[in-house]
Amino acid sequence: MQLNDLPWAAQSISDLGNTLPNSLLIYGQSGIGKRAASKLIAQSILCSENQNLGTPCGKCSDCDLFLAETHPDFRLITDEADEEANEIDTAASTKKSGQKNISIAMIRGLSEYVTIKPLRDRAKVIVIDPADSMNASSANALLKVLEEPPIYAHLILITRSPQMVLPTIASRCLKLKINTPSESAAIQWLKVHADSKHDRYLQLALRLSGGAPMRAVELCEDEQFFVIREDIFGELDQRVLDTFRLAELCEKLEPAQTSAIFNTLLLDVMCVQEGGGIQHNIDQTEIVERWANSKTGKDLVHWSDDWVEFSRSANHPLNKRLTLEAIFLKTPKS
């Protein structure tokens, strides 16, 4: 990946100049490409031919190692990896809470890693994504690394908002915001990067993704999602909802996809009730307007809380089908 593959992030990265501080906090909405931008910056730091941040040559031995994910001086720490470390964590078990965390064991491993000089004689780069998934113990352990980092070490933290990170950590980082591109610019990007046979989904996928191109490109290529979504809206259009049928359909989707369908529906309905237009479900205007005319704002807000809780507990080892059925039983009445 090159800088021109992320045109909406290019100016922000260019504004960094050619010298990266020891700690950088990259933020922006989900699906905007924060991890891709951070890896591009990391590769350019490690690149032996690089002259500018964000523009690695892609041809040197360091770039070859980085692209092969075997560079000894780069480490990516996420809440998706190192299950054993999560189980060792002295904080509450992630399996009990249903939440994934970057554990203190992982950060302690990072502390040891940065004390060893670079094997390639240039720098060491560590990306932590998402930085807000650290618990109190791991955040405090990272703070010790940030207070006196070795001159060769560069830490890049990723989050949706600086306010989600421990203030004492955020204050030690240079902040870089990745802005959301305009809809027209995002659609042009999607036309290049998404499979052409899915062009009919581009604008809808972008709207359902909140304008985030990289999330949209994944969504618009998932044809099953749009088929099931169509069936779900067909059920929502019935006078009497079939709770069990809705739960059956939603169970076929990832929890994040289910949340996206109903959260955007609620946002559109409440927006119409306030006199605004439909922003997300642009292909379902009749159903959205019918809901807006038949549901009370108070009931919609309460139902919205149920979907927020569903999103939070999506990884919890409970029966997803029963959870969905319980939510649909509380669907606002007409």
What is the number of strand segments? 5
**Major sheet, described briefly?**
5 strands, parallel
End-to-end CA span: 50 Å
Question: Globular, elongated, flat, extended or rod-shaped: what is the shape?
Answer: elongated
- Can you give the mean pLDDT? 87
The ordered string of helix (H) and strand (E) elements is HEHHEHHHEHEHEHHHHHHHHH
Written description of the protein model:
With 334 residues, this protein is α/β, with parallel strands linked by helices. The chain folds into two domains: 175 residues, Rossmann fold (3-Layer(aba) Sandwich), CATH 3.40.50.300; 108 residues, Zinc Finger, Delta Prime, domain 3. Strands 2-3-4-1-5 form a five-stranded parallel sheet, with helices on both faces. α7 links the parallel β3 and β4. The chain starts with 6 loop residues before the first helix and ends in a 5-residue tail after the last helix.
Describe this protein with a few key phrases.
elongated, five-stranded parallel β-sheet, Rossmann fold, alpha/beta, 51% helix, 17 helices, 2 domains, 334 residues, single chain, Zinc Finger, Delta Prime, domain 3
